[in-house]
């Protein structure tokens, strides 16, 4: 049996206390690729993603190196910066790791994770570059595109939005869209009511309270906490039964403190709840009645929104990027606000607070639509289609030109007829007798050594035959 090719997947981060959307996507992708590859996950340090990977039987290697952050926000001299990066000791360590492991394919996750791609191409190892964010459009975006194009054999994007800056380049001919799915470890439906009651009790919510949640692993300006707070404060007086739950760990302390100050100086402090990021996010989504995702940038996708829809909790968001793309795909265009507008976001939230029954029905409809479009089965089918495409275009990656797709389904054994079974039994019994007799004869017979120069003897025997044939033809 042909051994599966080795795929090394490089994560650009590995947080110790929590796991980001990009890490979740990579881990799920890694699990989905295991039927086709021997997967090795490379992380810059030990963290949640490495812990979860090992729990799932995935081999992990730790190797730190520098990121090319400016590929996301391009500037003049980006290419020189990339070239210099490959002369650092950490980049040389990545090259040595690849030489030692000898993978058939390297996959690098996120656009800023350029070192594994450049190192692999130096060693003539094929590269799949997985893009999860939308590169900033400016005068130097072409430089980022050139680097991704030069150091990749194939590009995966998690949405159509991700490919918008890359349009018009060679990348479109070697790319595929692989939309994400939710985390397989999220709580099952039979647990939701218990989780909802438990968490709401812990944070002081009664059944009459309508909870609007904001959740982000790390809070900084791009995640839009400020417009969320501004819109929430404008609703507090009209809807005293509303509660606004902020979950996450601040990265930009100045920005976070400004948001907290606005709440503290208002008359509605009691309507806000603050919680550090929850490792068990299932509890948060179950406890919420509505989730707000006010991202200030064009997200590549929107995992927070998708996870919320898995639990039947509807989402309001700013209408831009992959987040808008996903919301429209599940029929929630009416819950998209003007990007950056706190007042428009507040009006969408107000409609949901005023009509809790209709909001719940919207959540149920969205859940069904999300399951069909982004559920585990849909993701599996998209992944298999991509593998077929890669096998067709790059058969040498998979060992042989006639490489075939391994499916998850087991092959059924053909039903044998009675006649065939009897023939096989007879054959087995006769072969067993022959073996037995062979053993007896071997005990009595000496094994003759092979003659030396057997090849020469064969040639000498063949020569006269050929010469005789020639004489016959001439006569």
Automatic annotation (TrEMBL):
Start and end residues of each stretch annotated as Disordered: 401-475
Pfam families named among the record's database cross-references: Glyco_trans_1_4
Keyword annotations from UniProtKB, A to Z: Glycosyltransferase, Transferase
UniProt superkingdom: Bacteria
Composition-biased stretches (Basic residues): 405-458, 466-475
Leader sequence segment: none
Enzyme class: transferase
Enzyme Commission number(s) from the entry: 2.4.-.-
GO molecular function terms attached to this record: glycosyltransferase activity
SUPFAM superfamilies: UDP-Glycosyltransferase/glycogen phosphorylase
Record's protein name: Glycosyltransferase
Species name: Paenibacillus polygoni
């Amino acid at each position: 049996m042909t051994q599966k090719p080795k795929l090394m997947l490089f994560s650009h981060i590995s947080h110790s206390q929590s796991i980001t959307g990009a890490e979740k996507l990579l881990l799920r992708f890694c699990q989905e690729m295991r039927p086709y590859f021997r997967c090795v996950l490379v992380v810059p340090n030990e963290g949640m993603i490495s812990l979860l990977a090992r729990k799932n039987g995935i081999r992990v290697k730790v190797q730190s190196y520098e990121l090319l952050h400016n590929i996301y926000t391009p500037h003049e001299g980006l290419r020189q910066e990339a070239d210099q990066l490959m002369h650092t000791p950490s980049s040389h360590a990545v090259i040595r790791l690849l030489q030692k492991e000898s993978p058939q394919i390297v996959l690098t996750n996120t656009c800023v994770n350029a070192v594994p791609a450049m190192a692999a191409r130096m060693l003539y190892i094929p590269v799949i570059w997985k893009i999860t964010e939308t590169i900033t459009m400016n005068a130097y975006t072409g430089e980022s595109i050139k680097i991704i194009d030069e150091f990749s054999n194939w590009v995966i994007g998690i949405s159509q939005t991700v490919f918008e800056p890359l349009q018009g380049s060679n990348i479109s001919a070697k790319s595929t869209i692989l939309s994400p799915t939710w985390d397989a470890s999220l709580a099952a439906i039979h647990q939701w009511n218990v989780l909802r009651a438990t968490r709401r009790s812990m944070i002081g919510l009664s059944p009459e309270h309508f909870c609007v949640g904001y959740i982000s692993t790390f809070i900084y300006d791009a995640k839009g906490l400020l417009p969320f707070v501004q819109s929430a404060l404008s609703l507090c007086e009209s809807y005293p039964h509303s509660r606004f739950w902020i979950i996450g760990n601040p990265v930009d302390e100045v920005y976070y403190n400004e948001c907290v100050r606005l709440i503290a100086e208002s008359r509605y402090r009691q309507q806000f709840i603050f919680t550090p990021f929850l490792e068990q996010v299932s509890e948060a989504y179950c406890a919420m009645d509505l989730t707000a995702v006010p991202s200030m940038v064009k997200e590549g996708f929107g995992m927070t929104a998708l996870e919320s829809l898995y639990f039947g909790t509807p989402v309001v968001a700013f209408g831009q990027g992959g987040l808008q793309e996903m919301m429209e795909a599940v029929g929630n265009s009416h819950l998209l606000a003007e990007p950056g507008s706190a007042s428009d976001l507040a009006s969408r939230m107000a409609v949901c607070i005023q009509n809790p029954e209709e909001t719940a029905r919207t959540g149920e409809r969205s859940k069904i639509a999300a399951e069909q479009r982004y559920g585990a089965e849909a993701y599996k089918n998209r992944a298999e289609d991509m593998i077929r495409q890669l096998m067709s275009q790059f058969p040498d990656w998979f060992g042989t030109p006639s490489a075939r797709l391994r499916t998850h389904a087991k092959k059924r054994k053909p039903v044998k007829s009675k006649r065939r079974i009897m023939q096989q039994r007879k054959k087995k019994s006769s072969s067993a007798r022959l073996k037995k007799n062979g053993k007896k004869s071997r005990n009595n017979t000496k094994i003759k050594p092979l003659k030396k120069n057997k090849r020469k003897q064969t040639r000498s025997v063949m020569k006269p035959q050929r010469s005789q044939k020639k004489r016959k033809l001439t006569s």
